């Protein structure tokens, strides 16, 4: 009986692995649109997908980012300036993409643009500190998706939303975590809505990776600026030593969890774009797989104790 059970498990696993490796054919020259290509995941993805023969539309926030990317990629890659907080800009870019792809449609949309915002206790913040990450990471992502959706449906293509382990587990105050929880909800509803149209929707949940977003010095500087502006009564409640202790704790966490190599995130994007059966969710990074993801499924009392 145990032998049969073991053989059944092995057979299922083997079948899943074989299914996971099945690829879509004739993807050469297909159009994909990636947001947030100035640095980090988006920048690396644009370069790699360009080399692999996709026709990439890479949206950048800055002219410098766009020029630098164009200088190291093929003539097929096209850059475009886009601030995902600007609805008019999104509409114009979507119209430009539509004119470029014509009847072929858009095979892939990679919603990657994101910002961290301050990561500090809630009573240190005002509403504007929350607004910006939510505007970029969630509202901007939804707005880009809505405008590109007709082109994706035409191609029966793929939508890849870059969330975070922070979309399952909030380990600090600030707008970043609510924005990523929102991305998870939008991703799941969109996946179910699009199923009938042959559009596959995937969510990528990276752990802590070495990018401009997770620069510890920048994060600490933002925190220090907010701390210095706090009313004396709030500073007194937390105590002067809080800032230093918190900085040391976050530094240790960063050293333990930080993934130096960002290529696994791009590999997940590639699998989502090219696999016949892409996964609904991709958890990426050793820290995410071994700590954050398991912790997100544990009771609140355990989460609160560890965080």
From TrEMBL:
Endpoints of the signal sequence: 1-18
Pfam families according to UniProt: adh_short
One Gene Ontology term of the molecular function aspect: oxidoreductase activity
Biological processes per GO annotation: steroid metabolic process
Keywords for the protein's UniProt record, in alphabetical order: Oxidoreductase, Signal
Domain of life: Eukaryota
Matching InterPro entries: NAD(P)-bd_dom_sf, SDR_fam
Protein family (similarity comment): Belongs to the short-chain dehydrogenases/reductases (SDR) family.
PANTHER family: DEHYDROGENASE_REDUCTASE SDR FAMILY MEMBER 9, SHORT-CHAIN DEHYDROGENASE/REDUCTASE FAMILY 9C
Name of protein: Dehydrogenase/reductase SDR family member 9
Annotated organism of origin: Apaloderma vittatum (Bar-tailed trogon)
Organism phylogeny: Eukaryota, Metazoa, Chordata, Craniata, Vertebrata
